[in-house]
Amino acid sequence: MKKNNTLKVMLIALLVTYLLTWILPVTYFSTELYTDARFPIGLFDMFNYPTLSIIYFGQIALYLLAVGAFYGVFEKTGVFHKISDKIAKLFKGKEFIFFATVIVLLATITAFCGFTYELIFVLPLLAAIILMMGYDKITVALTFLGAIASGIMGSLFASSVAGVFAGTLSTDYTDLIWWKLGMLVLGIAATIFCVLWRNKKTEFKKETDKDLIPEKVELKTKKGKVRKSWPGIVIFDLILVLMILGALDFSGAFGVDIFEKFHDTVMSFTIGDYAIFSKILGSTMSDAAIGTWTSLNFMIFIIMATIVLAIIYRIKPNELFEGYKDGSKKLGLAAILSLLAYTILISTSNNPVILTILKPLLQITDGFNAIWLAVSAFITGIFNIDATYTASALLPYVMSIVDSVEVYPLIGFICQAMQGLVLLIAPTSFVLLGVLSYLKTSYTEWLKNIWKLFLILLVLAFILFIIIMNI
Questions:
Q1: Is 222's pLDDT higher than 90?
Q2: What's the pLDDT tens digit per position in 291-331?
Q3: Distance CA 348, CA 57 (A)
Q4: Could you tell me the CA-to-CA distances from 246 to 57, 87, 126, 386, 444 in Å, in that order?
Q5: pLDDT, tens digit, 9 for 90 and up, residues 1-18
Q6: Backbone angles phi, psi at 224, to 5 degrees
Q7: How is the chain split into domains, by residue range?
Q8: Do residues 39 and 21 lie in contact, with contact meaning Cβ atoms separated by under 8 Å?
Q9: Which tens digits make up the pLDDT trace of 184-204?
Q10: Alpha-carbon torsion, ordered 429, 435, 441, 442, to 10 deg
């Protein structure tokens, strides 16, 4: 707990949220702003809300456990160590190319797909490579989280970020698209700069964390030959490609409905009167055309891929279960943190005290003020780790006090930028704390190393806001 205090940090954040409901009156917006009496979270609510978190958001925890299990089996195949070692050696002396490529890819995927915790699928591989290259765990976290935060701030066509704010404000994905792209590029550049600047200014000792660097394993065929790595690489790449394709909002963002039509055709295909594919795939896939997939779908693919890996590499049942167990344990704390983070979200949704805090800020000036809106969006994002809930908690009231709909695109841009910044430092960000828990790095140590990137991104975002307001 002293070295890896992520659980303690999340529990303190949860306790503070509970206490706020005892101190502050509730404020909510329904055609107009209402301030009511205090509606504190009672003793039984304190136990009920985590239960609701499991019911409504448990699939996220299961997804994280599935990722851990996949890597537990992936390590048993020997492929995990081989590709990590090969990539680390390939980029020896070419670290700039490696970090720049990784950050650009992760940020771009986030900007188009809206992935946050979903990208933890690549975290163990990324961590192993960076550690094998001789860098430390803070560098891993900075590379990974900095890229994701930049992608959220410059979200372009992600339905779970830009799409949420555009839908609430009745704007389009393409509104301020070049400014969002600028934010994305600047965020990527800032992250690359901070990663490389830190590596240049710090003397590192080579990390040899046995839990994060995969064990070297060589599985052999009956003829004594070492099994090929390419099936494992193909399976890993296929999962990542399916996740990206499955999350791209083809219909809403690009007006492409081919996947929806294909899905309807497949699901309605019958032999006689029997809808064969609909029955085989089940109700989970009934409305899940490519472009609408969620972590539930990804989790199923990952579990299936894990089983296929075990079959291809002839992993014995006892080793398979051991891999499942060991891998799941590594992301077990991240799964718990996700449920606690959504418990905070449920608490502030059922006991709405956030607008009580924000009302004085939003009323400092008449009408729209980008600076105070950004501050309000940041505070809202701390308690609402999901952009959907940030939008529903903040924007209805903001829209009621803004005179002109012309500033709505800027409002959406501000909200998504603050949502990205929240991910980097908030004690409620389970993506952040989940990554730190996997890396066994403390939250306080992270804050000592992230403030430079956070400050740069904050300043860049505010510069863009001010320029947009004055043109």
A1: no
A2: 889 999 999 999 999 999 999 988 888 888 888 888 899 99
A3: 15
A4: 19, 27, 22, 19, 36
A5: 455 689 999 999 999 999
A6: 90, 5
A7: 6-249+291-469
A8: yes
A9: 999 999 999 999 988 765 554
A10: 10
